[in-house]
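Thought: the user wants the 3D structure for the chain below. I'll pass the sequence to the structure tool as-is, report back what it returns, then summarize two notable features.
Action: structure_tool
Action Input:
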Amino acid sequence: MNTKKHKVLAISGGVGGAKLALGLYKLLPPQQLTIVTNTADDFEHLGLSISPDLDTLMYTLAGRNNQAQGWGLAGESWQTMAMLKDYGAEDWFQLGDKDIATHLVRSQLLRQGKSLAEVTTHLCRKLGIETTVLPMTDDPVRTRIQTADGELAFQHYFVREQCRPAVTGYRFDGIDSAKAHPDILQQLADEALSAIIICPSNPFVSVSPFLQLEGVRDALKASRAPVIAVSPIVAGMAIKGPAAKMMQELNMPNSAQAVAQFYGDLLDGFVIDESDADQADAIRALGTAVDVAPTVMRSLEDRIGLAEIVLQFSNLLES
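Observation:
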């Protein structure tokens, strides 16, 4: 495959996004790939600073993730959580014993004055990850989910309540004052950038926070590189997470076409699953090029295969 030895910027949320990010990581030399990760899911819990999407991405790239559940570390033990339960402490957010080490190191370095990006670089290097992984911002942004039962912090909605409350809206605390990491804006302005890939992540709570950071949407539109998204919705369902449920509750069709409409004129290309091929013409009518491909990633070979398809698509759109 011809990767043209140009730079690629990938935008990722958690489990679904990390799968495609891993495929890109396996195909591209480290210096060609930068992965920007959502941090609006971050929160403070039990005195620790926790970055769920960053951690999922790091563990996945390092080959240490629990592949069965998609998040957390392989070979975990849960003695700390068992002891917390004995103490009657909060145990609704499961933290494995090895996973806690990540949060302890992050929290310590942040208290010492390191930025989240600096801490992330440190953790990635210790895990043997060679490519650049960046949080979308060093500033605190926190997703708040509005529900029929009141407003919830994202992890309370997603984990504690297991996405049961009906969603009526969402917002991002701190988004108005947060700044995108400067390296991201620099990359978007780089003439060597050949593709911007929005991995198959929840468009509302994993990608939208990044897009709402000051200057990001304008920089994406101004970039000469094509912006390509991979649909997180396949045959009306989200492979992982609450995206399809949220779409229904927000009175949107739970379809790949609706995701393309949500991103609007930001996209140059959209990759949909073969099961949604009947939506291709309607998406093209929006002014977005469409590639139809097998997008369900069950194996490493699937991840690499989809990454290759997306890169080839970007080459066509760039030419």
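Final Answer: Structure generated. The chain has one domain: 7-43+129-318. The domain at 7-43+129-318 is CATH 3.40.50.10680 (Rossmann fold).
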